[in-house]
């Protein structure tokens, strides 16, 4: 099984096979509009503009599971992303990334790359330790803007915790795109 075996919902109510992205490097990110990390949209869009021509596709998945920071409808989220951050990469339908209702794609991503969330995540580690202590030491997505790097074959290469900025993963993106 690979990421290419999954189908996801699009904001217009249809679905899309991730198999359509075979041969492309994917950066899959759970996003939110009202998060302190929301400005990462700028870095994501910048990297998308630079690397899309080399085969990078960024897929944003809005999620409201962390502090209610993505309360809008799919339409409102699309509007926010384009109006405030000029996002041109696909932002898909809102999903859950943890728990019984987690999207199958995110269950798979979490199992393939459980993450290494710890004190090096600074303020976010402190916050999650206080608000979601049960998540520490598990494969759960800890907060908005967790990123999963997937190669052209659909294999999960690495997970980046939310405080890792798009700019900080540029070297890894270049290596996978090479």
TrEMBL record:
<keyword id="KW-0575">Peroxidase</keyword>
<dbReference type="InterPro" id="IPR029759">
    <property type="entry name" value="GPX_AS"/>
</dbReference>
<dbReference type="GO" id="GO:0004601">
    <property type="term" value="F:peroxidase activity"/>
</dbReference>
<dbReference type="GO" id="GO:0034599">
    <property type="term" value="P:cellular response to oxidative stress"/>
</dbReference>
<dbReference type="InterPro" id="IPR000889">
    <property type="entry name" value="Glutathione_peroxidase"/>
</dbReference>
<comment type="similarity">
    <text>Belongs to the glutathione peroxidase family.</text>
</comment>
<dbReference type="Pfam" id="PF00255">
    <property type="entry name" value="GSHPx"/>
</dbReference>
<feature type="active site">
    <location>
        <position position="35"/>
    </location>
</feature>
<dbReference type="InterPro" id="IPR036249">
    <property type="entry name" value="Thioredoxin-like_sf"/>
</dbReference>
<keyword id="KW-0560">Oxidoreductase</keyword>
<dbReference type="InterPro" id="IPR029760">
    <property type="entry name" value="GPX_CS"/>
</dbReference>
<protein>
    <recommendedName>
        <fullName>Glutathione peroxidase</fullName>
    </recommendedName>
</protein>
């Amino acid at each position: 099984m690979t990421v290419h075996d999954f189908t996801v919902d699009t904001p217009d109510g249809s679905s899309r096979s991730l198999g359509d992205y075979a041969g492309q490097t994917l950066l899959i990110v759970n996003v939110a509009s009202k998060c302190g990390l929301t400005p990462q949209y700028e870095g994501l869009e910048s990297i998308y503009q630079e690397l899309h021509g080399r085969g990078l596709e960024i897929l944003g998945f809005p999620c409201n599971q962390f502090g209610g920071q993505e309360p809008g409808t799919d339409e409102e989220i699309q509007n926010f992303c384009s109006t405030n951050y000029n996002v041109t990469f696909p932002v898909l339908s809102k999903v859950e990334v943890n728990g019984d209702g987690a999207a199958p794609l995110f269950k798979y991503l979490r199992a393939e790359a459980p993450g290494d969330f710890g004190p090096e995540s600074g303020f976010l580690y402190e916050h999650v330790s206080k608000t979601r202590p049960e998540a520490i030491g598990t494969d759960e997505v800890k907060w908005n803007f967790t990123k999963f790097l997937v190669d052209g074959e659909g294999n999960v290469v690495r997970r980046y915790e939310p405080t890792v900025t798009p700019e900080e993963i540029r070297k890894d993106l270049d290596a996978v795109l090479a």
